[in-house]
Structure formats: structure tokens, C-alpha cells
């Protein structure tokens, strides 16, 4: 397959949708986050099975975000566009080795409905293609990725269509909970959110705080919020709030005049 394929958008019908769900966000103090997490664990939720062996049952999320030269994704978030998308490469390992999997992700948002597709590849392949060769289209010749080719092709198509390049690195600690009886109902607590103006996943630890002293609780579900969770929100007086880690991270970089690299 040649790079000229990317001049035509891959058919949406060929995309493999990993999930489509609602995402509600809430701003919490550390004390609120601790209390609510405790209430959830004592009743209807449990730690995500993937972090049972992790310290404090948390993991580090590192996401390298892409944007166009005219900041298309950032501006659409600022203006409140109902339908928008983001491209990012995500790692769940603080210090990945060449065989650690990282994920190319396309996240689309239509109001409160979020759809995410992703494809995995070894960190060593990511480094060779995106950092050493700086030729994302070399992915077309690799069989090392895991997932639908259509996801990879759309990621590359969007990069080419909007001349997107890596611009900001967002890192945070996540405490993930899932429903005891319905694991698709998820609540995550993200703290220590920070941003770096680097263009690689393994950027130096020169991060700036994005939401200092606050935790973002994200509630992720498919149909309707359970009644018992509504009661928890009411008891703590919580209201939905908007929060984009990417948008706020770039705003911090602009404020400190540490503009993301071109």
C-alpha cells in the first residue's frame, strides 16, 4: 500500500470501533476524590482488574497529542465545536522498553458521546518511525501493529490531511474503578495532570502542572447513569464540568511561553 492511499479518506464502515460511550467529568479536591472513591469501593465498584498488582492500584498515563500548524484541534475545543477529534499516541508505562505496547488513538467527540479507535504497536517501532525516521507513513510497511488496519490508515490520513505533528505531552496518575456487576461502567480519578512541550513520549521531566491541587473524575457509561451513582453525585453536590487535558495543557504552555515544538 502506498502513501497515495491517504489522499482518499478510508471508508467509515471499515473502521473498528473499540467503544462508543458517554463521558461526564467532575472537578474534585483531593479530599473529595478520596471520599468518593472510598464510597464507590465500599458499595458498587471495584478496582480495574488490570491494576490489581499496581502500587496503590494506579497507573501512569502519558499521551503525545498531535495538532495542525493552525491549531485546529485546540481551537475547536476553545470554540466549543460539538463535533471534533484528537490524535494521540498513548503509553501506560512510565519507562517503556522496546517491546512495551503503545497505542495510536483517534478520539472523536459528538457532544457528550465519545468514540475511540486505537491500534497498538511496540514502543521500539514507535521510536524508530516517529522519533528516529520521523516518517509516520513507514507504518504502512510494518506488520508489527496489533489491530485493524483501517484505524492505522485513518490515523495517517488525518495526519496528512491536516499536516498534523506532535505538539504536547500530557501525563497524569489514574485510579480506575469498574462496576462490580457491569465492568463497562467506569469511574476514573486523574490527578497530578502535567504538560510538557516535547514531541516524543520519552520527553525529559520538564512538566508544568495543569490542574494543580485538583482531581478530574471521569464517569464513562453506555446508556444511563445508575440511580445509586446519581445519589452519590447529589450527596456531594457535584455538577458536570468541562475539562480537556489537551486544551488546558496547551493553554498552560502558551501562558508560560513554552510553545509546543513545530
TrEMBL record:
Pfam families assigned: VTC
GO biological process: polyphosphate biosynthetic process
Superkingdom of origin organism: Bacteria
InterPro entries listed in its UniProt record: VTC_domain (IPR018966), VTC_sf (IPR042267)
Domain VTC: 21-253
Protein name: VTC domain-containing protein
Species assigned in the record: Candidatus Sungbacteria bacterium RIFCSPLOWO2_01_FULL_59_16
